[in-house]
Structure formats: C-alpha cells, structure tokens
Amino acid sequence: GDSVTQMEGPVTLSEEAFLTINCTYTATGYPSLFWYVQYPGEGLQLLLKATKADDKGSNKGFEATYRKETTSFHLEKGSVQVSDSAVYFCALSSGNTGKLIFGQGTTLQVKP
Amino acid sequence: DTAVSQTPKYLVTQMGNDKSIKCEQNLGHDTMYWYKQDSKKFLKIMFSYNNKELIINETVPNRFSPKSPDKAHLNLHINSLELGDSAVYFCASSQGRDRVEAFFGQGTRLTVV
Predict the structure, then answer these.
(1) Which of B105, B101, B109 lies closest to B73, judged by CA?
(2) pLDDT single digits (tens) B35-79
(3) Contact B44, B35 (CB under 8 A)
(4) Beta strands at A3-6 and A101-102: parallel, antiparallel or unpaired
(5) Min CA distance, A31 vs chain B (Å)?
C-alpha cells in the first residue's frame, strides 16, 4: 500500500541555519503531496502542497519540490527561526477517497 | 472565525464510560474525517464521510461510531472506553476527495484513566 517515510528526529538547529527534512513516498498512481506543521498544543496546518511532478510548493520561506524520479518531497528552508519549532508531517493523498497518509513526523527545535 | 472546530478540547474519563466528541466545519466542504494521533504523534485515518455517507472505515473497533447529521457536522461516539483509546483525535474536512488537502481542527485530547 501507499506509504510515507520521513527522516527521524528530533532535528535541532541554531537560528538562521539551513533546514532540510527528508521525505520519500511509495504510491500507486499520481498522488498529491503535502507538508503539514503542528505547533505545540495545536492542530495541523497545511504548510505547502504539490499536485504533480516537478511542482514546487512554497509558503513562509519553506519549499518542497515533487520529484517523481526519486519519489521524494524534501522540505527546505534557508534560514530557520525559533518560531519554526514544531512537528512537521509529510503526507500524500492518492485515489479518490480523500484519505491522507502521513509520515511519522519530524520534530524541529530551533535554538536562539 | 474557526473553520473546523471540535469540542471538547480536553476529555478525561474513566474506563468503561461512553463519550462523544463533536466537530463542525464552516468551510462548506462536503467531506469530513476523523484521524487519531497516538502518543508517538503518528496520525492515522479512522473514518471519512462524504455528504453524510460513510466512505472510509479503517478497521476501527466497533466501539467507535461516527455520526454525520449533516455535511457540516461529524461527531464521534466511543463506547466502553479503554486505556488504549487515550490519544488526540482530530477532525478534518476537505472539498472533494480527489487528492486534495484537508483542513484540521485543534484536536481533542482524550485521556482514559
């Protein structure tokens, strides 16, 4: 079945460091890919998305490119802030059920 | 104005009790979901409704029963609560079902003691 694998966390960075969180997927068909963020004590917020190969999703300085050849959707940010500390989830949706399949989440801690 | 709202935010109850979690969305979406997040933060879908019709039931124990009185509401009733039911339950909604993003509520932290 479809699945998503994220790099293990936690990831600890200093403010203004470069961030990469790796995400790879397995899916039949052509899924849409998403990154969600969960701040402490809150629900999930959509951070960015890409719906087809080579699409780049971007929001709030974060970017991810849908790479069909490597089945990847890595999240990047050039300069992280303390306020970016959160849990980041990679997810895919395929078929027509609306079901999201999530990776295990990666905790990011940014220190001043 | 909250798009997807759940109540209550916290729920502490004893084993064996029956409890309900309510969810409402004001986005005009036609599909709603319940997801469960375990203690390791892993998220998994439980149910999905489209226009009040059950679409997905992911091998959830039948102690869990979703109910959708209309397309803006999806409630979750849990009978005979067990310790292992302790988790955060998220309601979500989407417009359509074809590889679209979902919008999530703030979650209900259920603790069974």
Answers:
(1) B105
(2) 999 999 999 999 999 988 999 888 789 999 999 999 999 999 999
(3) yes
(4) unpaired
(5) 6
DSSP-H helix ranges across B2-111: none
The single-letter DSSP state of residue B29 is -
Residue B41 tokens read as 């933060």
Residues A16-56: tens digit of each pLDDT = 999 999 999 999 888 999 999 999 988 999 999 999 999 99
Q: Which residues contact A49 (CB under 8 A, 6 or more apart)?
A: A32, A33, A34, A35, A57, B101
CA distance B71 to chain A (A): 15
Whether B40 has its CB under 8 Å from any CB of chain A: the answer is: yes
Residue A98: list chain B partners with CB under 8 A: 31, 33, 48, 50, 55-56, 94, 96-98, 100, 102
Residue B104 contacts A where some CB pair is shorter than 8 Å: yes
Q: Measured between CB atoms, which of B44, B90, B97 is closest to A98?
A: B97
